[in-house]
UniProtKB/TrEMBL annotation:
Pfam families linked: BTB (PF00651), NPH3 (PF03000)
UniProt feature coiled coil, ranges: 532-562
Gene3D superfamilies, A to Z: Potassium Channel Kv1.1, Chain A
Pathway: Protein modification; protein ubiquitination
Residue ranges of domain BTB in the record: 28-98
SUPFAM superfamilies in UniProt: POZ domain (SSF54695)
Domain of life: Eukaryota
Record family assignment: Belongs to the NPH3 family.
Name of the protein: Phototropic-responsive NPH3 family protein
NPH3 domain residues: 205-490
Length: 586
């Protein structure tokens, strides 16, 4: 720890319980009360160093016995700081440290112990020590800033808090040896150094634990300074999360079982401190903070902010992340009749997050071609891939919650329709989620079932899913007919109308085309129709395979002919030199 010794005398004062007295032959002629302590002192050394004490002594002295007594009510740092100021006046030896320099400096300013009144006065010596020994070191700066807490208002007034915070912010951004940012130059003129380079590397979280010891107001100001200096927002986000994780476990329930307001306020402040840049705070962390916000009944602004942040980067989430418990805040009224309050998960919250993601990413996709990007098509494809990933995630979420007994129809319909149909390359997962929901909610009307099925693009179902639809007795017949009609269209487009009728029969073809619901109302006829359609698919596959085999056979035949011709040419070529040799011999 940095120290600076002031004064040289020893043994001048001694403390007797709450009484400070001088060990001198000369009796005291002034008594100054500071809180519960009384200081028996002498006028001359006090008046020689402090104009404030000089004025108070003159005001409270009595001419008849030349003795005075008064009280210092508001001296910052209380009797401990005043003790050091008095020792300075008497030349008593004491040490300045990073933990006491701020209260002593505040007391010196309160007593106006400046350089104009006396050369080498306490203010100048304390400020020199603070600037040169304390603020140039990270740990000492932290200690000094913590010592500002008991004298916060006065230390703020003399700008000590700002200097400590600026020292810390510079060290975090540019390195531990980057403060002070100015240096004296020729002829006493101070020139600013060139802007230092910002720190880079992997170990950028070295400062998180130290600053977590700061009070919330000081921590907020430090984070604000870091943002103003352009510090890495991801590193700032990590510091905020570290502070939250370290501080909030110490806040517990009160005697009534209700969470204290301090925890809710702390959470709201932490959310407000998180950088606004997209992606700098992990989605898992945001979702965890959202769950906590709902538990502690945080403000609507706090919850909305978290939902928007999560929605902007929902593609980074997993199914487990979306399973936000349905937690009623302690001050929230209990609506026992509401199904939503009886649900296991908070689905309204997730729906707002999904809608936020879709709104933001679809807007980006629509405007991406209007921007001067280097690769606008690539950027648009990236955004569409993100929406597709979220669509798959939402389908998994629907499958998970579809078994919820308290999940009403409107809630499930809204969640299923939150992602536009164009965002899904396949509708299999959505269909299977709806199927499970119908299984666990058998009391739905035919109209409600049809409304859910309208969310599924039957043209984007796989072969297995289409077969499941065709044989699914839980679905309205109109939906089944629609799937079969789509298959018939595919059949006709590949075989032709007459061949298709020959394959599945004119009677069933007519049933599908007219969407008659009273002729295919049993699973047996559906299975028969489906097997015929499947037979067509197999027939088409076989035809393609035969064509490939024929092409391969033809290619092999051509290769064999070509090979034979080449071999004949080689044989003729080899015979030519022999013929020439025979002619030469003759």
């Amino acid at each position: 720890m940095a120290t600076m010794v002031i004064g040289s005398k020893t043994g001048i004062f001694h403390l007797n319980k709450t009484l400070w007295k001088c060990r001198t032959e000369l009796g005291s002629d002034v008594v100054i009360d500071v809180e519960d302590f009384s200081f028996f002192l002498h006028k001359f050394p006090l008046m020689n160093a402090s104009p404030v004490l000089r004025k108070l002594i003159g005001k409270n002295s009595h001419e008849e016995h030349n003795h005075c007594n008064f009280t210092l009510h508001e001296i910052p740092g209380g009797p401990h700081s005043f003790e050091h100021a008095v020792k300075f006046c008497y030349g008593e030896k004491f040490e300045l440290t990073s933990s006491n320099v701020v209260p002593i400096l505040c007391a010196a300013y309160y007593l106006d112990m400046n350089e104009d009144y006396m050369a080498g006065n306490l203010i100048s010596q304390a400020e020199n020590f603070l600037s040169n020994k304390v603020l140039s070191n990270w740990k000492e700066s932290i200690t000094a800033l913590l010592s500002c807490e008991p004298v916060f208002n006065f230390s703020e007034k003399i700008d000590v808090v700002s200097k400590c915070l600026d020292s810390l912010a510079c060290k975090v951004t540019y390195g531990k040896l980057s403060y002070p940012p100015t240096k004296p130059s020729w002829n006493g003129i101070v020139y600013a150094d060139a802007p230092p380079l910002k720190l880079k590397g992997t170990d950028l979280n070295w400062w998180h634990d130290d600053v977590s010891s700061l009070s919330l107001p000081l921590f907020k100001r430090l984070i604000g300074l870091l943002g103003a200096k352009g510090h890495d927002p991801e590193n700032i986000s990590s510091a905020v999360i570290y502070y939250w994780n370290k501080v909030h476990p110490g806040l517990v329930l009160d005697s009534t079982g209700v969470y204290v307001d301090d925890l809710r306020i702390l959470l709201e402040e932490m959310v407000a401190l998180l950088p606004v840049q997209k992606g700098v705070t992990p989605t898992k962390t945001l979702l965890s903070m959202l769950s906590t916000s709902l538990m502690y009944n945080a403000s609507s602004a706090c919850i909305e902010s978290l939902e928007k942040r999560i929605g902007a980067q929902l593609d980074e989430s997993t199914l487990e992340d979306l399973l936000v418990p349905n937690l009623q805040g302690p001050n929230q009224p209990n609506h026992a009749s509401s199904k939503k309050n009886e649900s296991k998960y908070d689905m309204d919250c997730i729906q707002r997050i999904i809608e936020q993601f879709v709104e933001e990413n679809l807007n980006v996709t629509k405007t991406s071609n209007l921007q001067d990007d280097e690769n606008p098509m690539e950027a648009q494809s990236h955004e569409l891939n993100k929406v597709a990933a979220v669509a798959k995630l939402v389908d998994e979420y629907l499958m998970k919650i579809s078994t919820e007994a308290h999940l009403d129809f409107r809630q499930f319909q809204s969640l299923a329709g939150a992602i536009p149909a164009s965002a899904r390359s396949s509708n299999d997962d959505l269909y299977y989620a709806i199927d499970v929901y119908l299984q666990y909610h058998a009391d739905l009307s035919e109209q409600q079932k049809e409304q859910l099925c309208q969310l599924v693009d039957m043209r984007k179902l796989s072969r297995d899913a289409c077969r499941h639809v065709a044989l699914n007795e839980k679905l309205p017949l109109r939906v089944v007919v629609k799937v079969l009609f789509i298959e018939l269209i595919h059949l006709k487009s590949s075989l032709g109308e007459h061949e298709a009728e020959a394959l599945i029969g004119p009677e069933l073809t007519a049933e599908i085309e007219t969407e008659t619901e009273n002729e295919i109302d049993n699973s047996g006829r559906r299975e028969m129709l489906w097997q015929r359609l499947k037979l067509h698919r197999n027939y088409e596959t076989l035809k393609k395979l035969i064509k490939k085999l024929e092409k391969a056979k033809e290619a092999r035949k051509n290769w064999s002919i070509s090979f034979c011709k080449n071999m004949e040419s080689v044989r003729i070529f080899k015979m030519l030199p022999a013929s020439r040799g025979q002619q030469d011999a003759a």
